[in-house]
Write a structure and sequence with these properties.
With about 110 residues, the protein is mainly beta. The chain has a domain at about 35-110: Immunoglobulin-like (Sandwich). Helices cover about 0% and strands about 45% of the residues. It has no helices and eight strands. A five-stranded antiparallel β-sheet has the order 1-8-7-4-5, with no helix packed on it. A three-stranded antiparallel β-sheet has the order 2-3-6, with no helix packed on it. Strand 4 (about 60-65) and strand 5 (about 70-75) form a beta hairpin.
């Protein structure tokens, strides 16, 4: 990855929720995940984010601040969700989304 020195970064996005399986010996193929991972796009310079949820379901969206406190909790059925962090300080925030089917996905967002 090319990373020139002294270049500011708007955001850091990481998605966690990929199922892993340790295979030893002969084993059947790993099942593919039933849904796509949580996708995150930065909008307007890192104060607003767009979450791409895997499918249309009843999703609970929870946001935790750098100290681990729950700062937002909302529900949506739309596969695209606008997350507004403009009133919060810079830092790394954890987003957790949970579906009514029991799917739970996480992402870390670094707000500049």
């Amino acid at each position: 990855m090319y990373d020139p020195p002294n270049t500011p970064c708007d955001a850091f996005i990481a998605s966690f929720g990929i199922p892993l399986e340790l295979i030893t010996g002969v084993h059947s193929p790993i099942e593919q995940p039933s849904s796509l991972p949580l996708r995150v796009w930065s909008l307007s310079g890192g104060s607003t984010w767009l979450l791409g949820l895997p499918d249309q379901d009843n999703w609970k969206v929870q946001v935790y601040d750098p100290a681990g406190r729950l700062i937002q909790e909302n529900r949506t059925t739309d596969p695209l969700y606008d997350l507004d962090l403009k009133d919060y300080a810079s830092g790394i925030y954890v987003v957790q989304v949970s579906s009514s089917k029991g799917v739970r996905l996480h992402a870390k967002i670094q707000k500049p």
